[in-house]
Amino acid sequence: MTPCSSVISTSKVYPIDRGGVLFFAIALFIAGWVTPFANAQTGSGPVKVFILAGQSNMEGHGEISPIGTPGTLEYSLNNNPTMYGHLTDGTNWVERDDVWIWYNRGGTTVVSGHLTAGYGASNTTMGPELQWGHALGDLYDEPVLLIKTAWGGKSLAVDFRPPSSGWSVNPPVAPGDQGYYYQEVLDTVSDVLTNLQSYFPDYNGQGYELVGLGWHQGWNDRVNQSYNDEYEQNLENFIQDIRVDLATPNLPFVIATTGMSGWSETHPRALSLMAAQLAMENSTIYPQFEGNVAVVDTRDFWRDLTVSPADQSYHWNRNAETYFLIGAAMAQEMNLLLNPPSGSESIDAVYLAQSHVQKPSDPYFGLVSQRDALLKVHVVDPNTPAAPPVTAVLNLNGQVLNLNLTGPTTLPASIPDGPGIVQHSFDDSFTATIPAGWVQPGLQITVNAGVASTTLLNLEIGAPTKVIMTMFDVQYFSDTSGDYPAGTFAELESKWPVSELEVRRLEHVVFPELVIPPRSNLPAARVRSQAEYLEQTGQPFDGEQAAALAWNRALKRAGGLSGRYTLSYINIYGVNAGGQAGGFAGVGNGTSQGVLIHELGHALSLPHWANDPSYPYVGSMFGIDPPGSNNTHVGPTWAFDAPTQTFLPPIVQTNNPGNHPSGTYKVDPMQGGGNGYQEPVFLMNHFSDYSMNQMRNYLEGHVVIWNDNLGQYASWNQAAADYTSTVSNNGVQFPIERDVPVISVMASVSGANPKVSMAYPPIGPYTGSLIQLFDPTSATDRATAQSIFAPAEGCDVCVRVIQGGIEKTYMLAASWEPGIDPLQGNSLRTEAINLPAADGEVTRIQLLLTPDAEINGLPANPEVLHTWAKIVPNPAAFDLAPIAGSSSAITMRAVPGTTSTGDPIEYFFAEVSGNPGGTTSGWQSSASYTDIGLQPSTEYSYFVTMRSGLEETDPSDVLSSSTHPSGVSGMITVDETAQFSLQSGIGLNAVTGLAGFDAAGADKLVVTVGTEHGFNNGEGYVFEVRYSGVILTEVVQEDAGVNNGTAAIFYLDNPGPIGSGTIEVSASSPNGGIGAAYALSGTTAGYGASNTSTGNTVTSVTLTTSGENSLLIAALENSGNPNGSGTAVANVPMTSVASGFWGSQWGSHASGYLQVATPDMVTPTFSTNIGANFSINVVAAEFLAQVDVTLENFKRGDCNADGEFNIADAVCGLEYLFGGGVSTCLDAIDANDDGAVDISDPVYVLSALFSGGPEPIDPFGNCGIDPTGDALDCDAYLCP
C-alpha cells in the first residue's frame, strides 16, 4: 500500500476523456510529495483507512436492545458471551480508541469518534461496521479509520452509478441524478481525510493509507428488473472506476451479497442479483479482480422473524447477529486479500463437541442425534499467514450443507494437542455449529482450509434421546418455598447425553401426614411432624428418603409398570435429606443441585466410580494429579457447555466455588460430589466422557417412545437409525394414554401394622400417563387383573374415590399380610393409580380392606382402613368435649383440622337442644368456642363441623353438658409458682431452678414451656412433660412450623404433694428454654377454654372463658430476630410468673396468670420485641374452679319423700324443726327455695295447699336437680 498524506483535495476536477468515458479525478497528495504537509507525516505508522459504502444495510439497522428480545445485540451478548464478549467491558459497550469512525448519518448528521455500538442508521442500531472495525482493528498496531458512505434506498443503476456506465447529467448535481452518490462517496472521503486533525483529535499527523473498501448494497436493484439486468456490469464498472478516482488501482474490495431470506430465497431477480455479486470473484470472468476482490455470501446469516426484533426482511429483520456476522465475514475476506495464505497451511486436528470436546477417534466419542454439535478445527501454518477461508461440507444421505467456520485472522504456527496438553479456545480454532437436524447417523463432514482438506466418515452418532422427567416436589408436613438455583435444569440438559430434557414438574405436593417405612429395628410410623416421629419411636426423625423412594416407585408404576417412558424423581422439602436413585428414578434434596446431578447419574445407570474397576480415570495422568484424597477424577477430556459456548477444562481453576486447590483434575459427579469444582458461572460439576458414554448407551437401550408410524412403543435400533425395536404392551407395562393430564391416588398399607395404613392427598393434576385400571365389581376386570396386575399375594386393598361427584372403586396392587414381621421393609406396601384429570376433582379417597379382590370382588361392607378428604378429620370431632364452667357458660374445642392444600380452616359449633340461651357460633377461625348466656342447671347439646373454601366436613357426634346451678362457685388458689430452665439436647431432661417450689396440698400442676429447635433449623416442639415420672396432659401448643420455636401449656390433676418431685421435658433438640410451674388448689379436673396465636408482631391471644372464678394462664415464646429476642414480660392485670431469655442467641419466654370472676372475653397481653423477622407464639388456657353442686334428684316440698305434696309434708317439716325429726334431703324441705330450712317452709306448704299461695318452684311435681345454688344438701332421695 502507498502511504498517503492527510489530505485529499475536495476541489472538483473537470471531466477528462478516458476512451469516451468521463471520470472525475481526485488528486491524492502522497506523503513527501507536497512540502506543506511534511509536518503532518511525522509520528507512528499511517492511519489505516477503510471505506464502507452501500445503502441502508451498510448504514445498519441491527437493534441494540432490549436484552430480552431475540436478535438484539444485548440478547446476543447475554446468550453467547464467548462470541460477543469483546464488545463490552462488563458494564458498557467498549469504545475502541484505536479504531475511529466517521459517518454522515442520513446526510444530515455527522457522528464520529471511537468505534462502539450505536454507529448504525440511528444511535440505537448497529451495522457491519461494528465487527469489521473490531476485527481489522486487532490486525494493526496503527489506528484504523472507518469512513461510512452509506445512504438508504439507493440503487447502483442510478444513485451509485459509476461514470463508466454513463451519466445522463455530467456532473450530477442533485439527488436523483445518475452517479450523484458515487460522487458523494468521493467527496466524503476527501473531506474526512482533508480534515483528519479536526475530526479526530487523536490524529498526530502520521499520515494515512487507503487500505480497502467494503460494499453492501443491492436491494433497490433487486426489486427492479431493468436495474437487475445491468447490475453485474455496473458493479464491475464501480469497482474499477472507484479505484481510479481514489488513485488506488488495486484497492482491495469486499462485497457482501444481498442475501436476505437466506437459502430459501427463490425469486429470480434475487437470485440473479446475488449471482452478479458472486461473479466478481470469478477469476475466469474477471481475471483483473483475482486476489483483490472477494465476495461474502450472506445467506448463511439470515435469521427468521421468530428470532428477530422486527418484520423487515429488507433490513435483515433488524437482527443484530446478522449484521455482526456480515461485518465479521467481510473483515475476514479483507484480511485474506491483504494477507494471502502461504499455501502451506494444514488441518492439525478436528474436534466435535456437544457435552465434551472429542476427536472422532477418541475411545468414548459419540454424538446424540438431533442436537447441535460444535465443529472445531485446528488449522496451522508455520509461516503464520492470514487465515484462509475455512469451510465444512456436510453430507447427509445425499443432502449437502455448506458451513463457513469463523476463527482467527492469522493462522497460528502450531496448536499444542493431546490429552493433558490441549487448551481449547475459540481464539486459535475455526468453529461452526452443525445444526441439530444434520446431526444424524450417516453424516459425513469434509473440512477445507486453503489447500488443506480432511473428511470425517463413520461418525458414531446415536439416538436422539429425549428424556421426559416427571418431578414431584413433595413437601413433608407443611409447604415450604425451597427450590434449586435458577438455571439448574438448563445446565443439567447441557450436561446430559440427550437431545432434549423435558421437565414435567408438579410443585408443592404437600403431605401433612405421611408414613415412614420400617428401619433399623423400628416399625413403620404414620406421623404429622418430625417431633411426632421422635415421640412415637424414641428416635430422631429419619427415613425420609426411604419414604420418598416408596412413593416414587408407586407413582412411576402408575404410569406404566416398565418405567421406560418417563424418568420419575421426587424432590424432598421440609426435612433434611440426601438422595438415592437408580433404574431411571430417584429422590433427593430439592434445594441441592449437587445432589440432583449425582442422583440422576445413578438413575442413568452410573455407580460410585471408586467401586468400579473399569473406570479409566484413576490417579495421576498426563502429569496432572487427582483431586486430594479422591483418587478417581474426571479425566483429561475437556467438557463443553453449549448454551454459553464455553469450553470447560478438566483441571480445577483458582476461582472454583468449593475453594478446592487448583491444578488438579476435577471430580466426576459420581465420585466426589455434584458441585464445588466447577467454574463460578456454573452450578454443577461436569461428567467425565466415560460417564457420558455409559449414560448414552444406557438411555439408547432403556428409553422407549411411541412410534406413530408403527403404532407401537419402540426402543432405539442403531442399525435402522430409528426407534423401530418394538415392545409389547399388555395395558399395564406401558401407557394406554400418554402425555395427558392425570391425578394420582396413592396409599401405604400394612397388614402387620394396620394403624399406619393411609391414603395420601390426591397428587395433581399433572401431565402423565394412564394404564388400565381394574374395578373389583367387574368380572372382566377381575379376570384380567389376575393375569397382568395382581401381586402373588393378591389385591387385598382397593381405593374408593369420589371424582367429579362420581364414586369409583379400583384395585391397588398391594397385599395385606398380617403375619409379616412389622420390622421388615416388605411389611409396608405403597402403591398408586392414575386417574384421568378430565373426570374432575378428587374430593374423597377411602382405603378399603378387600382380601383377594381380583378373585372375590368387593365385599358387601368392606372395612375402611383410612379416609382422606380435603379436610381432615372428616367427620369433625371434639378435642375437648363440651364442659360447663359455671351456671351460664359451656366451653368446647374441636380437633384442629388440616387441609391437603394448607388453606385455612373455619369451625362451626351448633347448639341443637333448643333450650333457652343456647347459641350457635357461626363460622370462626378458632377451634375453641364458649357458649355464654345459658340457663342454670340446663342441658345443652352441640356438634361441630369444619370448612375450607367450598369444602365442608360432615358434623361430629352430638355431645351434651349441663350448666351448674346458679349461685354456686368455687375459688382457685395459686399455692406456688416458679420459673425454671430447660436443658439442651433430645430426650427427657430434668429442668433446673425449682429448688423452692413446694405445695403439699395442690390438686393441679400446670407447666408452661417456651423453647426452640437447636440452631433454628428444625421444628420446635414439646413432645412430653413429666412430673415424678407421670406424663402431663397437653392443653395447647403453638409451634408455627419449621425454623420457629414453641409455646405450650401442660397440666396434671392430683399430682400429690409437690416439692420433692422432678419436672422433666422432652422437646425437639432444644437449645435450652424457660418455663413456669404452677401449683393450684380448688380446681376441677381438666381444663376449660384455650386458644393460640402466632406471628411476627403478635403479643396477645383472645379467648372467652366459661367459668366463674376460673384461672387463666398464658405464655409467650419469642424466637428472636434472628437470634436475640430481648426479655418478654407478662403485662398487668396478669400476675407475672416467668420472664427471661436463654443463651445469648436464642429465645425468650414469659408466663403469667389472671383470675376471671365471670365468663368473659379475655385478652392476656405481653410486652416483647416485634418485627418482620421475629417469630412469636402465644398460648392461653382456662382452668375451672371446683364447684360442689348436688346432683341428687328430688321433689321440692316433698319432705317425707312419699312422692306426694300434701299436709303430711308440712307436719314433716315441723317435726324436723321442733320435734327432733331427721332428713336426708334438706333441699326437699326448703319449699320456698330461700336456701334455708325454717318455719317459713311449713307455712309455705300450708299456704300453697289451703290459702291459694304459690306452688314450690322446680323441681316440683317431677323429680329433678336443684337449678339454684345454695348451701343445702340432698344426700339421698328416692324418687317414686
Task: Describe this entry's structure for a reader.
This protein is of the alpha+beta class and 1280 residues long. The chain folds into seven domains: 4-338, 3-Layer(aba) Sandwich (Rossmann fold), CATH 3.40.50; 346-461, Immunoglobulin-like, CATH 2.60.40; 466-702, 3-Layer(aba) Sandwich (Collagenase (Catalytic Domain)); 737-869, no CATH class; 878-962, Immunoglobulins (Immunoglobulin-like, Sandwich), CATH 2.60.40.10; 973-1183, no CATH class; 1191-1280, Dockerin domain (Type 1 dockerin domain). 15% of the residues lie in helices and 31% in strands. The chain contains 21 helices and 70 strands. The protein has a seven-stranded mixed sheet with strand order 8-7-10-5-11-12-13, with helices on both faces. Strand 31 (639-641) and strand 32 (646-648) form a beta hairpin. Helix 9 (231-245) runs parallel beside helix 10 (268-279) and helix 19 runs antiparallel to helix 21 (1240-1250). The termini are far apart. Mean pLDDT is 91; it is low at 1-43.
Summarize the SSE layout with pairings.
Blueprint: E1 4-8, E2 16-18, E3 21-23, E4 28-30, E5 47-54, H1 56-59, E6 62-63, H2 73-79, H3 81-84, E7 96-105, E8 109-115, E9 125-126, H4 129-137, E10 144-150, H5 180-194, H6 196-199, E11 208-216, H7 219-222, H8 225-229, H9 231-245, E12 253-256, H10 268-279, E13 293-296, H11 320-338, E14 346-353, E15 357-358, E16 367-368, E17 373-380, E18 390-396, E19 399-405, E20 430-434, E21 443-449, E22 452-456, E23 461-462, E24 466-476, H12 488-494, E25 500-511, E26 514-516, E27 525-527, H13 530-537, H14 544-558, E28 567-573, E29 579-581, E30 585-589, H15 593-603, E31 639-641, E32 646-648, H16 689-702, E33 705-707, E34 712-717, E35 722-726, E36 737-749, E37 758-759, E38 763-770, H17 779-788, E39 797-803, E40 806-812, E41 829-836, E42 842-849, H18 853-856, E43 863-869, E44 871-872, E45 878-884, E46 889-894, E47 898-899, E48 906-911, E49 928-932, E50 939-948, E51 951-952, E52 959-962, E53 973-982, E54 988-990, E55 1004-1013, E56 1022-1027, E57 1030-1031, E58 1033-1038, E59 1046-1053, E60 1063-1067, E61 1070-1081, E62 1090-1095, ...
